[in-house]
Amino acid sequence: MAGLCSVFSVCLCLLGFSAAVFEDQVGKFDWRQQFVGKVQFALFDTHSQASKKLLVATEKNIFASLNSRTGDLFWRHVDKTGPDGHINTLMMHGQDAVVVVGNGRLLRSWETTVGGLNWETVLDTGSFQSAAYIGVQDVVRYVAVLKKSAISLHYLSSGHQKWVENLPESDTVQYQTVYSGGNGQVFVLGVVPNSHIVIVEYNIEDGEIMKQKSVAAPWLSSLQSSCVMVGSGVLLCADPTTKSLYTFPLQSADQTTMTPILLESLGVEVAAGFQPVLISTQPHPARPPLSEFFLQLGPDYHILLQLKDGLVSTLRDFNPSYLVAFATTGEKTVAAVMSPKNETVSSLYCTVINLYSADTGRRLLDTTIIYSMDPNGGKPAKLYIHTFLKKDDSVGYRVLVQTEDLVLTFLQQPGRVVWSREEALADVVTMEMVDLPLTGTQAELEGEFGKKADGLLPMVLKRLSSQFILLQAWMSHLWKLFYDARKPRSHVKNEVTFETLSRDEFNLQKMMVMVTASGKLFGIDSKSGTVLWKQYLENIQPNSVFKLMVQRTTAHFPHPPQCTLLVKDKVGLGSLYVFNPIFGKKSHISVPALPRPILQSLLLPLMDQDYSKVLLLIDDQYKVTAFPSTKNVLQQLQEMASSIFFYLVDSSQGRLSGFRLRKDLSTELIWEVVIPTEVQKIVGVKGKRANEHVHSQGRVMGDRSVLYKYLNPNLLAVVTESTDSHQERSFVGIFLIDGVTGRIVHEAVQRKARRPVHFVHSENWVVYVYWNTKSRRNEFSVLELFEGMELYNSTVFSSLDRPRPPQVLQQSYIFPSPISTLEATLTEKGITSRHLLVGLPSGAIVSLPKMFLDPRRPEVASDQSREENLIPYSPEMPIRTEWFINYNQTVSRVRGIYTAPSGLESTCLVVAYGLDIYQTRVYPSKQFDVLKDDYDYVLISSVLLGLFFATMISKRLAEVKLLNRAWR
Amino acid sequence: MVFKCPGGAAVLISAVLCVFGPCLCGGQQPVLSPELPEPLAGGEVGEGGEAALLTADRFQIEGRAAVYGVRPEIWAPSAVVLVDGEEHVGFIRLDGSFTVNDVPSGSYVVQIASPVYKFEPVRVDITSKGKMRARRVNYIRTSEVLQLPYPLQIRCTGLHSYFIERETWGWSDFLMNPMVLMMVLPLVIILLLPKVINTNDPAMRQEMEQSMNMLNPNPDLPDVSELMTKFFAPPKSHSSSSSSGSGSSKSGGGSQRGHRGGPRRR
Lengths: 968, 266
What we know:
heterodimer; A: four-stranded antiparallel β-sheet; 7 helices; 43% strand; B: six-stranded antiparallel β-sheet; four-stranded mixed β-sheet; 43% helix; disordered N terminus; disordered C terminus; disulfide bond (chain A); membrane (chain A); ER membrane protein complex subunit 1 (chain A); transmembrane helix (chain A)
């Protein structure tokens, strides 16, 4: 009976706390953007003229198809991260694309219209060198994969292996290229560095070695970097030292040396430090490559050359030119060259792309595309050409340009941008949400209160005028609403620009400031997902660490809001970048020079005269730099110094140390906790979020007494992991350390547990997830800290004066899925109940009520626990698809979830970022403070009107009746 | 839910209790992780897993997924096979089959992630020699073996239901509301009855008066319900029963008259 009761109560709770999405809310306040990352290979589908497919393979191990008309994704396949999923090469033939994955481990063939997998073959181990289609008599039948010591041939239709052969002398010869001219042989080219080239010829049918010869090339170190195949089986190599080209026909029977051609004989001036790059093209895999090729002589200098009868001739000289590419449509091959617009002044910001006929080098008429670069962006890095035949048989083309800041721009003549994608957003590192500024009128109204009074009459007049302005704004708003309502819904476009950017009445629309790993900053409107500004920071080293801080919010009109980005490179040397988060403009405030590596940065609640919070930077000599460092700030710091504490974590030595600021801005070590690194290492340290509010100090129990929470704002949660990874001995440790005194408040060890560990620290609780090695499942554990039945000091919390340790409750639960990331919701005042947002590898984000993670959940429900709304304990945590806040809009590889409070207490803004970006709102306790969006205005107004008229009519009738009675 | 799984659940709960007890009274003991019975066959497999990582003995997990009535071209491109999260990833071929390559020996949960269709996860155990076994995922009793066929046969168990129905307002809901029924029905009776019955007709009035008399029987006549309770109540004493017996005969006559009056009223 009790069991039934408890099950029933659980069901009730489930019903009450299902924070699901309604179907009509889809896309109303949420959006998703999908990215692919930095493009490595891009191929246009030239199979048919009407095709819109663009295939890309990226550094994020993604193979995707984009719509070349709109830039949207047709489909996308996300492989595993790391070298095992790395895409080595991408080739396309007809409808199918062949991809070599994981250093030549897998060979996959994809059907490109729907994005389905045709077949998949596991190859033998060995480092991948190159792959090529092998055609016989104009039909492509096989694909050859060259490994370090073997070559294998596979059927294109099924992936089955035709033959595999070991390469001769593979321990001395570096085989790097495989080539087939479409006439029944497969050539494998290898090089012994600075000695000779080895050419092995295989028979397609059985893999037998037909011929094997070596050609002396003492100047050659690598085939891939300095040799290409040109024309009908001619190997062409460039030698930077002698400044000459070498040719060697593969099929020749008698020739044993390479023929040198001096570049000077071609009339080409070669500068010192010449690093030649050869670019050739093979339009059809079953036919030999074209005899025309590009030679890059310098960073901005290419020439188009032709090889004819063993002689090289110059077709055209492109100086200056940034990027070149070949493309073929039908029987025509063209070369596209990106060069500065004005040939004399090489202005980087405006470039021109022109099309040249490949076989003659003549410029094709009316083929200019003007490409103007973003002044806040990077230089163009790669050029891909999509050509097609027009109706009059001339060649039309579109260009895909990838820049250094990972913008993919697709252009058509005469320079119209068809679409562009910000692929830097595939790698968001950190983000903040900043309130939007008030509109001019709102700001004026606000400003009125701040000013000193200047007489009664002017104030009244001012008041009236501002009210009038507000009325005007309201009327125009109403008019706009009315105007938009008449138009069909699809036509109403909410164009977001800086002019229309203003805070809405509930502060639901904010500016998302995103920092990406490539060093590009973005300002994105949270309502629509439009990128409002972007700024590319050059000279950012890879693997830098970013920390974004909001120094001044929008609340201090007329001072503009101010964000500071701290960039730390590998060594720890930092630099500050100060900007306005709304407009993205770099601020002109002088930034302190940081000559020493930065260990820690803290944003103090202290404010300068211009309301910017003080940022303290601690370098490796424990010296403190304040920013801004005005007199006022320094004075405030001196006054406050005795109450400013900070901590440092050295995870390599397992040391946590606490410091105090002295009046002269030097520091003093006050505590140190050493976690022995032989046994365990620190995985993560988390404090509480600065903008978090806790509404209630305690919890009301079933018997009406109050259990007070232990709300220590200085508490740090430190999670450690054992160095011993054996499943019986591994453990995960959690320490709760007071950041001021260094006192270990609580310590827990989870035996037989290991990473991945995710944890959230908020209010009086810590939730952490670990992998249970013994039962092989993920488990949630929650720690809650309580002061007890009475508060020690209810007015103020001091870490230095807390005689009693808190009471700690803990409970663990099974979570039936792996976890990618974990975050807690956050609301304005903390009245709303909390939910945990759990990112799953499947791409879903689950909103899990904190109620399920309550260590006071009883084993058996009693009256008191029912009074308290405690759900009886059950070991397994449910996952219901109704709790997926992103329904079917999966977010791949979620790296982090950012939560921000909105102006409404019930509403929390959520941004999940990873490969994709997803923004939505969640209502952990439902929308209790605002009318729901399904509120039936028609019903309530019709009922009110009906009642009103009913009273009017009945009043009239009653009057008539009374009158009649009086006459009787 | 709690009570369906006696073995594991009971142990878990007791572990929690021993945590729960001291903490309430101010204890600060380190918390033990919930102890569970050693997984029998799975345990051996798991130990092999760590060692196999080094020897690079890698295996393939093979299987086939199917959605009833939907061709794989439609659902397979958007689905992906996840093994222990994103540790190993496999793609589904256009015929519905899939292979996950390079998996070291160990125990894994194989799951097909699709934004539209729901698939049951399967636990796959691989021994260090490469023997495969598939079984149902049971996170509570991890050692329980409910064997499934290998190569895996994963069937779609339905669509994901992401949305909850909005409470729509309809007239039928409104009218069928008990509160409304309680309000509306008496109102109808009060308003309609005087209209139906013509009070000015003398015959009708007479009849009504008569029926009113029926409804309000003489005060000395006991009620029918009273009669019934008395009839079924156990006799207390002889004297009281005899006296009540005489009363009952009298009231019986009254009730008979009442019954006779009933049909006439109709």
